[in-house]
Specification:
Helix 1 (121-135) crosses helix 2 (148-159) and helix 3 (178-192) packs antiparallel against helix 7. Helices cover 35% and strands 17% of the residues. The protein has helices spanning 121-135, 148-159, 178-192, 209-223, 226-232, 251-264, 269-281, 292-295, 316-329, 352-370, and strands at 7-15, 21-32, 42-46, 73-74, 79-80, 85-89, 140-146, 164-170, 302-308, 333-338.
Length: 371
């Protein structure tokens, strides 16, 4: 994609699912490709927990950092910018340009901290819809995402039936199960027990870096697989001896410390609390639906669901539960269980196995959309 520009849209007031109103809401986003005159060739890509709006390209010509989905977004790539207008935005509650707990509270002139209201996946989707309306999108050809991004994609089909032609949901679930909640809780406790967290009011002083780094280390383990860890690290030891008892002795220890420390430099601890809470609250069968069949009864979209055999955070049976609900509701759905060794992060490790599934579905839906 070359050099791309980060953008912002001030959408004003956002009415939240909780009943509260969030004032002066700003959404960070990027776009790739061009919107057709009918406003119907758009694809919305939704990011996962630690992602952001920077899906493709780079912000400076000499930068080595490309967007988190650069391998899949661009001319001639899976999400082909010669055909489609690709949009990616940072979720409400985030810390990469969209309004979140680190943003200035207009009532106090100080960062929100824990005064920021609770947000849900539905709130994230409603903010995205306001952005798409602003951009002139009349209908989405597709909404796609993995993990939290897949939850957003599924929510889109319920929230705006008829607006989304196709949904691509990868390595996700119709609700957060107890194991996922448990790992998130450990991470949240690590942050809140850091003395520098200060009840969420740490802005302008030292951040709770130790707690956030530990939360990231715990979470990152759930994104990997045993095969990945053994293949990448085995029991390899570092060359030097640990400087203290119980210090870093194995390469896997060093890797986890690196992942934690690098995460602290780019993410806000309070945003981690809010976004993991939104994931834990996600359940498509809440709010009146007695079952997934009932939840999906009014959807108009066509679906591609993808799971990975090595994913133990959102294992295949959780994706298959979505498939069964959609099938019972009569929604056209394609399901693929892919035997890949990368764990939950397989949706980010782009490869021909996943790429061919995505391209095949998009090409079929192009013909259906045209008709």
């Amino acid at each position: 994609m070359g050099v791309v520009k980060a953008r912002h849209y001030d959408l004003g007031v956002l009415e939240l699912e909780s009943g509260e109103k969030l004032e002066d809401v700003r959404i960070a986003y990027e776009t790739y490709g061009g919107l057709n005159k009918e406003g119907t060739n758009a694809i919305l890509i939704c990011h996962s927990l630690s992602g952001d709006a920077h899906a493709a390209g780079k912000h400076r010509r000499n930068s080595r950092k490309h967007g988190w989905y650069d391998v899949a977004v661009g001319p001639g790539k899976t999400f082909d910018t010669r055909k489609y207008f690709i949009v990616c935005s940072n979720v409400v509650g985030g810390c990469k340009g969209s309004t979140g707990p680190s943003s200035t509270n207009p009532e106090t002139g100080r960062p929100y901290g824990l005064d920021f209201p609770i947000v849900t996946v539905r709130d994230m989707v409603r903010a995205q819809r306001k952005l798409l309306d602003h951009l002139g999108v009349k209908k989405l050809f597709a909404v796609a995402g993995g993990s939290l991004g897949g939850m957003q994609a599924l929510q889109w089909s319920l929230e705006y039936p008829g607006y989304v032609h196709s949904v691509i949901a990868i390595a996700t679930a119709a609700k957060q199960y107890p194991m996922g909640i448990a790992f998130h809780e450990i991470g949240r406790q690590a942050i809140q027990k850091d003395p520098r967290w200060k009840g969420g009011d740490y802005y302008g002083s030292s951040r709770p870096a130790d707690g956030l780094a530990l939360a990231r280390q715990v979470g990152h383990i759930t994104y990997l697989s045993q095969d990945t860890l053994e293949r990448k690290f085995n029991r390899n030891r570092k060359n030097e001896k640990p400087r203290k008892k119980f210090g870093v002795e194995f390469e896997i220890q060093s890797y986890l410390q690196y992942k934690g420390n690098s995460f602290v430099r780019r993410f806000d601890a309070n945003s981690y609390l809010y976004i993991t809470h939104a994931i834990d609250q996600f359940d498509l069968t809440e709010g009146g639906a007695k079952s997934l069949r009932d939840a999906f009864k009014d959807v108009k979209s066509r679906f591609l669901l993808v799971s990975f055999t090595s994913d133990w955070l959102y294992p295949p049976e959780q994706v298959e539960e979505i498939y069964e609900g959609l099938a019972e509701a009569g929604a056209p759905t394609t399901y693929r269980k892919l035997d890949l060794p990368y764990g939950h992060d397989a949706f980010l490790v782009y490869n021909n196995t996943l790429g061919n599934v995505l391209v095949g579905f998009i090409e079929r839906e192009e013909r259906e959309y045209g008709s």
